[in-house]
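Can't attach files on this board, so I'm pasting raw text. These are the components:
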Amino acid sequence: MKRPAMVSGTLLLSLLFAIVVFGPLAALIVAAGGDAGSDALLLLVPAGRRLSLFCESILLSGAVAATATLVGLCAASLLWEMRTGPGSRARWLLLVAAPVPAYLYAQAWMGVAGSSAPIPLWVPADAILSAWVQIGAFLPLCVGLSMLALASVPPPALEAARTVYPDIAVFRHVVLPLAAPALAACTALVFVLSVTDYSVPTLFSLNVYSLEIFAEFSATNDPARALFCAAPLLAVTIAVLFLAQGRVRDLLGGTGLCQRAPLPPVYPRWFVCLQTLACGIVLLHLAVLVVSLVLAAGLPAAVAGTVATAGPDIGTTFSTAVLAALCALPPAYGVAARMNGKNGRLLWLLCLAPLAIPSPLVGIGLIALCNTPAFPFLYGTAAMPVLASVARFAPFAALVIHAQLQHTDTLLIDAVRVFQSDPLAGWLRVRVPLIAPGLLAAGGIVFALSAGELGATLLVIPPGMETVTIRLYNYLHYGSSAAVAGLGLVMMAMMAAAGAAVAAGIARLGCRGGYAGVGRR
Amino acid sequence: MAPDNGTACGLLIACVAAIAILAVSAGCTDPGARVVVVYTSVDQVYAEPVLAAFEEQSGITVKAVYDVEATKTTGLVNRLIAEKERPLADVFWNGEFMQTLLLKEEGVLAPYESPQAASIPAQYRDPDGCWAGVGGRARVLLVNTDRVSAGDYPTSVFDLASETYDPADVGIAYPMFGTSATHAAALYAALGEDEGRTFYQGLRDRGVRVLDGNSVVRDLVADGRLKVGLTDTDDACRAYEDGAPVALVLPDQGGIGTLVIPNTVALIAGAPHADEGKELVDFLLSPDTERLLLDIGWVQVAVRDVGESPSCIGMENVRGMNVSAAAVHAELEQAQQDLTAIFIR
Amino acid sequence: MTIECRNLTKSFGRTRAVDGISFAADGHVVIIGPSGSGKTTLLRLIAGLEVPDAGSISFDGTPVSEPGWALHPQKRRISCVFQSPALWPHMTVSENIRFGMGDVPAGQARARMDDLMERAGIASLADRYPEARRASIVRALAHPARFILLDEPLQNLNEELKEEMFGLVLGCAEKNGTHLVYITHDMAEAEQIPGMVLSMNRGKLSGPDGGTGRM
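---
Top answer:
C-alpha cells for the assembled complex are below.
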C-alpha cells in the first residue's frame, strides 16, 4: 500500500510567513526595477560624511544597548528576589511602560531639561540626553528580559553553588554565565531598536544614520534608494544578531520562574548600592514619564474628553492589534517549529533581519504587493494595517514561540499523537495548551508593538480609519500637550490591560509542575 | 522540538479563519452611500472641522487619511505615488505646494478647472489645471520678547547667520523636510544655488540649533530656551494665542520678501469617486472655505480678498518672495541633497 | 496479532540508530540492549512517531510504515508508556487517563479508570515521580489498544512498586488479549514476559539466533 508523503503543515505556515514578511520587500524591489542602480554602490557603502555618521550611530546605539542591559540586569537582580508579597506582582508593572513610544519619554525629559540649570557647552549634551532618554525608554524591556534571563538559571545549579560559595561569587560564577546568552540577546534587541530610531536623537538635535535614510527617501521619493541606504544598517543588524544567535532561545526556557522564594542572597554593600542605584534609575524614568503625562493631561474631565474624541480610534487600534496578534501566531509558529531543523540557523537570521527595515518601506512594499488586481478584496480595507503589523512583528512572535517550543517536552506531543481520539481534540485539549504560554507571550508582544506602529500603518490604513498612535502624533505636531498626554495615558492603560492578561496567563500556564495537576487544585 | 504537523495544521486553519473574518468584515460597506476620500497633510485639528462642514453641506461622507510630521513627509506623498495605478484617494489637500508639484510630475494628479478657482490669482494656479492654491502660511521669525528687546528683533532670515545672536539661542527646523525644505529651495531660487548653499553652510558653521520640526522651534522659543526661531505662521500664531511671550516678524520685507506657502488642492487621476472629489475640490477652493481656514488659524494669508484677516500678525500688505512655484520646485532636489550633506553629519 | 519489521533502518545525521532490523512476532516482544543501542528508536518506529528511511513495518499483514510514509500513531490502535511519565501538566491525572481513552463511552470509561487507578494505588493528583510514573502506565493500560509499547516503564520505582505495577501490566495484557512491546534493562523483568526477546546493539540485532530468541 503506497501512500503519498505527508505535506508538512509547518512548511506551509513557513511559506505564509515568508510571503507576509518578505513579500512587501520583494514587491518593493521588483517595483523599483533598478531605478537606483547607478548609485547603488555609493549608497550601499557609506563613505566620507556618511561613514562617520554611520560609525557614530553604531557607537551610540552600542552604548545605549550595553548600558540599558547593565542597568536592567542590576535592577532585575534586586527585583528578582521579590518573590513574595506585593513586590512580586508590582515588579511586573514595569513592563507596562515597555511599549510607550520613546518619543513620549523624550518630551517628558525635555521638560525636565528645560527647567534645569543650563548645561555647560563643553558637555556633549545632545548625545548624552539622547542616550539617556533611549536608555530610559528601553529599560522596562531590559528589566523584563533580564528577569527572564535570571529565570533561566536552574534552581538546583544555584543551590549547589550556594552551599560552597558566598552569594556574590555565586552571582558572578554561576548566575552571570548561565544568564549570559539571554542577556546577550537582550543587548542585541535593544541595539536594533536603538539604531533604527531617529525620533529621539533628532529631538535632541543629534544626527543619526537612520535620519539619513529618511532624508534620502524624502528628497528622492525613491524607496529603492532608501532601501540601499538602509542596507549597511541591515548588515550590522544581521552581524549583531548573528553574534547573539541561538541565545534568545534560552529566554523562555527558564525553570526558575515558578520556584518558591529561596533564602534571600546576602550581597556585599557595594553590590547592594549598585542594585539600588539601578532600580532608582528605572523608577526615575517611569516617574518622570508618568508625572509629566498626568500633569500635562490636566483634569480628569479633560482626559475623559480626549478619550471620548478618540473613542473610534481606540476601537480601531485595539481590534487591529488583536487581529495582528492572532494572524501573526500561525506563521510565526510554522517558522519557529522549523528553527531546530536542517536550516534552522538560516531561518533564525532570515526571521530577524526584517527588524532593521525602515517601517515606511514595509508600507510602500505592501502597497506594491496588495494594490494589484490580484488582491482586489484586500487593499483599502481594515485588513491592511493588520498585515502591516504582521509583516513587521511576526518575527518577534516567531522568536518567542521558538523559545517556548525549546521548553516543551517532545514526549508530551508524542503522547498526544498516540492517545488522541481525533486530531481536533488533541489540538484543543493538549497541543495548544502546551504551548499556550509562548503563544500568549508572543501575542502580547505583537499586540503591544502593533498598537504603537506608525510608519507602515500610516501608509496602508484605509481612508476614514485612524489609530490612537496616528492621532497622538498629529496632536504632538499641533502642540496640544494635554491631548498628547491623555492619549499617552490611554495607550498605557491599553498596554496595562493586555500586559496583565498576558502575565496572568503566563503565570498560570507557565508555572505548571512537571507532572500533572500541580498548582491546579 | 521537532516540527509538529498537528499543531501546525490546526494553527493554519485558525489563520485562514482569521483572515477570512478579516476580509469579510473589511468588505462590509454601504454601496449606496456617497463617499469621497481625501488625503491631507493639513493638521488634523484644523482639517476636521472643514471636512465636517463639507459633509454637512453636501451630504457626502468624507473619509480622510491624515499625514503626521513624524514621518518626515515621507508619508502620504509616497502612498499616493505607490497607489498611482489603482488610487484610493479622490482629492489631495496639501498644506504646502512642493509635494503637489512632485505629484503632478509623477502623473498622480488629474486636470480639473474648478469654477471656484476662477477668482484665485494665476500665480496660485497650475497652468495645466492640476492644482490650485488657497490660503497661505508664511515663514516667519518668532522672537521671545522676554529675552530680546524690541529694538533688537531680527528683520531678515540672514540675521540668523549674523553675529547678532549667540548661535545656541537661534533655532531652525531640519531644512530637508516639510515647509523648511520649501523655504530652502525658495532661497536657492531667489539667491542662486551658491549663495543659498553658503547661507545654510553659515548657519551650520555658526552652530545654530537644528531641531526636529517647526513645532519644536515654536515650543523652544515660547519657553525661552531660544531667543529666535524660524517657523511657520500657524505654529507661531498658536504660541502667540496661547499667551507665550513671543512676537512675530515678517522677514525681509525690505529685501527678498517673505515666503508665503499656499495650501494646494488637487484631484487625483483615476479617482474612484471623481464627481464627489470635484465637489470637495470646489468646496475647499471656495472663498468661504478660505475664510474658514483663516478663522480657525490654519492659514494667515488669503490668496484673494476675503475680508480682514483675523491673524495674530497683520498680513494684508505682506511682500511675498518673488519666485514662482516652478522655480522653487526646480531647486528642491539640489537643495535637499546639499542640506542633507551639510546638516546630517 | 502480529508485528512484522522488514529490514528496518533509521538514521539521525550520520548515526544509524536502527540498522536493517527484521523480525516477526505474534505475541509479546521484549527488547533488551545497552544504552544507545537503538531500542527507543525501534519502539518509536513501531509507534509511528518516526518514519523509517528504509524497510517496512506491518501489523497483521497490513503495512503501517514505509520509507516516507507512516500511518498516524492515533490510527494504529497502540498505546505507549514513554521513558518519562509525559503527563500533560495542564490536566489532572484523571483527565490525562480519560483523555487517553478517546471514544470509550463515559460510564464504561469511568468504571475502567476507577478500577485501574485503584489497583495502581494512585489519586487524582501526581506531584511526585512515582505517582506520575504509575499514572502514565495506567493511562496506557486504559487506552483501548492492540499493542502496548513500553519504554522502561518501571525505572526508578522501588521494588515493591515495581512488582505491583509489573503484575498489573501483565494481568491487563492477558485479560484484554493485548500484546506488549517492552523495553527493559532488567533481565529479571525480561525473563518474566513470555514471548520473543530482541537483543540489540549499535542499531542491530545481536547475539545467537540473530538476536532473536524465545524465553
